């Protein structure tokens, strides 16, 4: 059973995906963390991340490994735990540029498909292009949305000390870049179920997705 959960930043994708996976005994894959890990490696190795040719030339070099336990997801690059460093504002500011490079997407999508194929009981994969491109045959596709205000408020709650206006602007800029790139942009798959989380609690969103998974299981 493969569940794809896509949507822009701040819609509750990670919290929802982890909770759904934990509740169902599934694996969990945070694909955004993989793009962040690639970006972190490039920044640390002096690659000019605004030069797509330089990024493409280095895309095969870092070894990115994701741990898929929803209660304890991990991410390493060349054996180094980068769970903290990939969340810095520097990485966040550059991840859209790196993830727009087709060679990066090809490399990381390959890792994602291998992980999904190897999942024992089922997997929840969260990202931007999972339902459209990486796993188009996913059993269930969810597209999470929320108003820009709700998304910015959630993010600034997570990033203590960063004001709401700055968060709002950075979030909109990232979504615009992620939605307008040529290579597998952020998009809702035609057969995805859209869930607007603006007025919902995390618990309500999790219940909604778990119910949809159960319905699919019965129908299979
Ligand atoms: O989910 P996140 O905010 O940690 O993702 C970071 C960035 O990674 C996001 O701005 C775009 C990119 N990304 C992507 O291009 N494709 C995915 N499947 C997941 C993330």
Task: List the main descriptive attributes of the protein structure presented here.
binds 2'-deoxycytidine-5'-monophosphate; alpha/beta; 15% strand; three-stranded antiparallel beta sheet; 220 residues
Furnish the topology, listing elements before pairings.
Layout: E1 2-6, H1 13-24, E2 27-30, H2 31-44, H3 52-58, E3 64-67, E4 74-77, E5 80-81, H4 89-99, H5 102-118, E6 123-127, H6 130-134, E7 140-145, H7 148-158, H8 164-180, E8 193-196, H9 202-219
Bound molecules: 2'-deoxycytidine-5'-monophosphate (DC).
Radius of gyration: 17 Å
Measured between the Cα atoms of the first and last residue, the distance is: 10 Å
Structural class: alpha/beta
Number of extended strands: 8
Give the strand order of the largest sheet, numbering strands 1, 2, ... along the chain.
2-6-1-7-8
Topology pattern, helix = H, strand = E: EHEHHEEEHHEHEHHEH
Q: Ranges with pLDDT <50 over ≥5 residues?
A: none
What is the tally of helical segments?
Answer: 9
Helix content: 40-55%
Q: What hetero molecules are bound to the protein chains? A: 2'-deoxycytidine-5'-monophosphate
The major sheet is characterized as:
5 strands, parallel
Mean pLDDT: 95
**What would the principal axes of the Cα set say about the shape?**
globular
Strand content: 15-25%
